[in-house]
Each structure stands twice: as structure tokens, then as C-alpha cells.
Specification:
By secondary structure, the chain is an alpha+beta fold. It contains 9 helices and 6 strands, in the order H-H-H-H-H-H-H-H-E-E-E-E-E-E-H. It has 3 domains: 3-57, no CATH class; 65-105; 129-248, Phosphorylase Kinase, domain 1, CATH 3.30.200. The protein is 44% helix and 18% strand. Helix 1 (3-10) packs across helix 2 (23-34), helix 2 (23-34) packs across helix 3 (36-57) and helix 3 crosses helix 6 (114-127). The mean pLDDT is 81.
Amino acid sequence: MNVNEAKNILLLYRPGMADAEDSEIAEALALAKVDPDLGRWLEVHCARQFVIREKFRQITVPAGLKEQIISEQAASEKMISTRRTIQFAAAAAILLFAVLAVFRFLPQASDDTLAVYQNQMVGVALRGYAMDVQTNDAAAIRAYLVQNHAPADFVLPAPLQQAALVGCAVEDWQGVKVSMICFRTGKPLAPGVASDLWLFVVDRTSVKNAPAGAAPQFTKVNRLMTATWTQGGKTYLIGTAGDVLTLRQYL
């Protein structure tokens, strides 16, 4: 299986479903773990699917639609009439309208919106990563980021400056470098896990719909509570397990 074949197969992959049990999808996922370009493509695909899934969950079913469909189904067992057919078609049209409305308000063929960025970065934190540098030396981390042309002139909130640094990595977002700074909250970690608090920094112009100001916007993304804000031309995204109060202690 080559990369293009894997992409075609993974277009059918939906994170969190039983898709990974399919042999072809499993093979494509395995290839994504060893091929960096395919791995980044998969991160974007998974982030996009998460956004679409959340939009579907926000659809409000029209009042009485369920009862209408059930009653018309019962009636169809007794007789077929033109009137009933028209009514059922109207109910189907309502559902179709709701589905089309979802795609109308989704980012049109765009992968550079805030929601996709948040999901991709959270995916990096949750699916595992390798830190480029493991150190608690803030100066060494900034020096590494400068050397690799990633944002290094970020400003940490005062409480976050007290958190334990463990290292950093440089991630890719739409061809732009993202600084990933890793911290520990002090909670017990599972074996092999080095960090449980992550900060991502990217140029503000690289993410559509990014917050305009420094007031943090809190959003639950996958299993992490996140806060996003913009300051000094940079957009910041911080995430950890817990709730808003858990995260506020680092802001």
C-alpha cells in the first residue's frame, strides 16, 4: 500500500468508530504512524471529522418530527395514499434541510479555521508525540525554537511560569511552524507519559477565527479542556485534562 492508496482508504475512517477494525484501514493507519506526511494529513482529517461531528450534534430536530414519522409509518401499513406520501416527503425534506444547514455553516473547504487547529493540536497531545528537546531550562527551549524558526517570543502567563517545564517540540500547521511547550501539572502520570499540560503558540495570521484579544476562550476539545487567546501577534492554545477551574490556575 502506498501513501495515495492509504489516503483514499482513510477518507472513510471516522475516529472513535469501529472503522479501525477494518483490515485495510488498519494497514493505512499503521502506515500513517511511520510516514510523517501521511501522519500530518491524518491529523487534519481527524480534526475535520471531529468538527463535522460536533456540528451534527448541534442540529435541533424539528418539534413533532419523530411523532410525525412514527404515525405516518403506522398509517403506511394500512393504506397507501397520495396525501401520506406527500407528508412523509415533507418530513424527509425537513431532515435534508437540517443536514444541508450544517454544511452551509461549516468552513467551506477550509482547513485553517480555529476549530480545526484546536482539534489537530489536541490530537498531537493525546495521540502521542516525541519531544524534540527534553529539558526544564526555559532558555534552552527558546533557543531551540529560534533555531528551528518556530515562535519563541511568546509570553507565558505568570501562573504558567511556575509550572514544571519538561521540553518542547515543533509541530506543523498548514505549512506554518507551531511551538509546542510541554509542562507537568504534578499529577501522577502513566508510564511513558512525560507531560499532561501543553501550550501551543502560532502566528495569529495563520489561524482563521482566532480570538482577537487576550481574554481566554474556553472550549472542551476531545478529552482536554482548552483555552485560546491572542496576544502580541501570537495565538495561544493551552490544554489539559479537567475543567475550566483546573485550567484557570495556569492563566
